[in-house]
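A favour, since you know our structure tokens better than I do. It will help me judge whether the discrete encoding reads sensibly. The space below this message is yours for that.
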Amino acid sequence: MSYLPTIQHLAENPEALEQTYQQAVKSGEQAAFAEAVEAARADAPANLLLAAWHYRLIGAAAAVKKRVIAWGWALPLGLLNGLLLWLLSDDQRFTIRFTNPLNGQVYSLFPAVLLLAAPVSAVLIALFLALAGKRRPGRAVAVGLGLAAGAAYVLLLFPRMWPRLFQEQYLGLMALHLGLLAWAGVGAVALARGDDREGRFAFLVKSLEAFVVGGLLAIAGGLFTAITFGLFNALGIQPPDWAVRLFAAGGGGLIAVVAVALVYDPAAAAREQSFDEGLSRLVALLLRLLLPLAVAVLVVYLGFIPFNWREPFENRDVLMVFSGLLFAVVALLIGATPVHGAELSERAQTWLRRGVIALAGLTLLVGLYALAAILYRTANGRLTPNRLLFIGWNVVNIILLAVVLIGQARAGRTRWLEAMRQAFAVGIALYLAWAAIGLLAPPWLFRGAPADVAGLPESVQYVLYERADPILLKCDRSPHIYLLEGGQKRWIRDIPTLTAAGYRWSDVVTWVSCEDLRSVPDGIPIPPDAGPPPMP
């Protein structure tokens, strides 16, 4: 029996359409009814009743088809991931080091496991999605090659940066950037069955759910580890380092793959995943309950800002909290937004939409405030990799929040979910673009030229590697201050000239000897008409 003419005729009559569905259920023709609904929806994509039936039938099909977790792939790949991260966590063999070309001193800068954990895990998760979903692993292999190229770029080019502070900042930030690109690689494999706006948003929600599940498993694993090592300590047994790393890094690698296996069905497209039962429903409910609490906290906080206006402008830690808040709110908005409109009643959707608008609006104000603070600190200090990339992240989050608000103003109550999906589609593009720019650009923007200062005294070379510009030098037996620039020392005439140029006393290095400072060639004084530079 063809249901298409009937459904097209009843597309504005919910009661009659429900009766037709019940008749199809009794006659065992649910599949034919579902196909007719999809065909009718394709002809009338704006029909809300047909859209609701589309999501209802997806949920009904998911309920009928009970998912079986592919443990046969999840456990071996999870154990392999744990083994690889355990090996990488050996800081004696896998620490990122740098040899100072000026004096040959070797520095240990960053644990390799922190940089490579996300790419390695992403490759094995992508393999799980491909193999358990009975697809060719070509995309997973391409993802692995791309992430390997990104990690190699970081490891090969970070030595170009100068000084050490910039190298450490870049490596630390690349753990975040490579992690985001690794997540995108997993998404490329997961969306192989259907890469549309609805599917991408569904993958976003499932990603957040996997992070929550992974966090819960990590807490349980941490408690088990603490109890295990506590028992050994009670017996006077000190576990070897390799065993501690096996529990920490190895367990974390296993959890990453298992968490994905628990929440994501590799055999189904992203939009066909289950979102209204079990843990998925619990995570969504908790995040929706957090929404009004977050709004209340932001209202109270904004009320206190006028009394502590200068705090983020002067306190770096407060500014870091603001930046973290923007990411947390974006995650909350993603998790609280339903994938399918049929999940919630019309009244619940109305209140949820109001909460989303309030939270996005308040966070936008905080984001603009934080952006002003970091721009102020940069203008009064210096541009560093940290400041450059966090300025970009703040701008991306602010644009996303603005797109959310504009979309809700235009869409109204009837199409608010579609507007949210569109906003997050814009956000994904911006996030990935800035992640790629942040990975590629800093080694070229913060390049050093060690060869230009190779002939300077060793103490001055040490300062050059340890501190960022501006470098002001003063020896203990002389009142004169010099700016080190281009391998030369530029005498600064007096303290008013120093402060007028934007320098601070905290920039002055005072432990270089006068003999070493005298051996640095003289440059043009500050100001140029200050006269002959005095000797230190």
Remarks:
- The beta strands are 95-99, 106-111, 471-473, 481-485, 488-492, 508-509.
- The first strand starts at residue 95 and ends at 99.
